[in-house]
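[SOLVED] Need 3D model of a two-part complex

Original post:
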Amino acid sequence: MDRRRLFALAMKDLKRMVREPGSLFMFILFPAVLTLVFGLSFGGIGGGGQTSFDVAYVNLDQGGAWGGYLLGNLSSLEIFKLEEYPDNRSAWEDLEKGDLQAVIIIPENFGSSVASYWAAPGDPSSWRNTSLSLSIDAGSMTAIQTIPPIVQQVMETSIFGEGPKPRPITIGSPSLVQSREFSLYDFFVPGLFAYGVIFIVMEVGQSMTIDRERGLLRRIRTTPTTSSEYILGHTMSNMCIAFVQVILIFTMALLMGYSPLGGTPSLMMAFVIVVTFSLCCVGFGLITASVAKTSGSATGLAFIFILPMMFLGTFMGFALSPGMQAASRAVPSWWVTDALTSMFLRGLSPTSPAVLQNLAVVAAWSIASLLLGIAVYERFGRD
Amino acid sequence: MIRNMVTDLQKGNTSIVVKDLVKRFDDVTALDGLTLEIKPGELFGLLGPNGAGKTTLINILAGIADPTEGSVEVAGFSMPGQSGDVRELIGVCPQDTAVYDYLTGRENVELFGALHAMPSRDVRKNTDDLLERLSLSGDADRRVGKFSGGMRRRINLIMALVHDPQIAFLDEPTVAMDPQSRRAVWDFIRSLRDRGKTIILTTHYMEEAEELCDRVGIIDNGKLIATGSPDDLKKQNGSEDLEGVFITLTGRSIREGI
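Solution:
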């Protein structure tokens, strides 16, 4: 194995991915677009076309009408559907359930603080400083990005107006609350990772048959490059593609309001599992390229591997009948989706036995399919 | 192995030896008992119409096809058993242009330099030099998919030679080229020969063989029907050119077979 050859072959494939519009769309943009569309349809931003936020408030202000004045201005905005709660606890419970996007708590000394400001706008030492509490659903990236600046702006314009700065009232750093209820999108997202990667079967099948059709495979065989290096070059480039897919899908999902349980360790484990799964898809791609004699037939043959994995082992899986759900364990993508569901939806640790078992099964599939793919390619695929 | 090869060349050992070579594809005999010797540093032309067996012979010499019968040695290495050693020494320019359309001209050449495990600095130096000599420097950073047919063929040739091989198999390198490009390639091939490279050139252009080759072998229907220098063959057959030699030997024009 020569690393210069491996690097050159992998870079060649990555350049194809970037420079050929069809490949770029199929393997990079399509999974991202799918995540976006699903997010809009079923997720935090979508939520049936959500254009406003359900916000609870608890008004503890005992210093006059300032608190009510602020709430009146907030409720005049179409983007907020304000609902009064009797106490903090009930508001927080609904926020945790996912019924609300935010909770505003106006402190007891809110009114007196505003009054102290207007009594001596230029004398901060005489003010009674306080803080307005704002809690936001961590599952909605849109709420996190949208609500704090709007509340800040309304408070500035409606209470302090053109008065001199600074102000005696600040909005406390928004506390993010994890909702325990999940949207349909939360169920879809783990399957989207596997969905994006399974198309590597087609990519490997097509690129190798194109190399063969155009005489490039023969040409490479006149160089010292071995079959192992050629295959490993493809494997490396597709692992990179899978890595990029994970980043894109995860980023898009977060932007669409996806709120996975688990932190960085879970995300790292997701990378490991998905990239391992990409090896399995390379193996299936090798088999496809070896059996197919043209790039067109490779596209068709690839679906022999893609369709079962797509229907049984990705985001479509949870809608299957009980019988088919049992059968879906026969495809490797199911184990990927199950691992990611365990970490992101069920909150299991990445080192929990269930997740490690998923990883072991995916790894076993990958080793088996790669070895079989290499054997079939050596026997039938080189000419 | 490369050192051994150079030693063999310096001793004047025969570079390529083919004995009683037969290659069959199902019921078609592409090569029929072909015997041939090519010396180190020789520019040897394989002449014949399309389908005569020239490319099949090149493929066997390059280790991408196995002989059905007979023996083949390239630089002292037996084929196909030692084809891995031979690939270190050869450069092959295929008849059909085999390039990556989505890579630039420079990237195609540098890729094949890397496949020969050349140090990056040498790859860049050789690439620049070859692109300059075949008048492609100005277009080197455009994608090959946008190249004209002649430019693609020149890149095809450069990709075979970027690693400065001891033995070059050039399979119809000038086919479909305009006269100006063809002349440029001829000059380039002459410069390779002047540097002591062993070159096996297949062509069905008789004037190309007369212009370039030290010796030629005429193949027809998988058989080697004559070998010698262009002048010797013309004298032996009482012809003014190699086209006449082919007509004398086969009873038909080489063009009829194309």
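Edit: Residues 3-43+183-381 of chain A form one domain.
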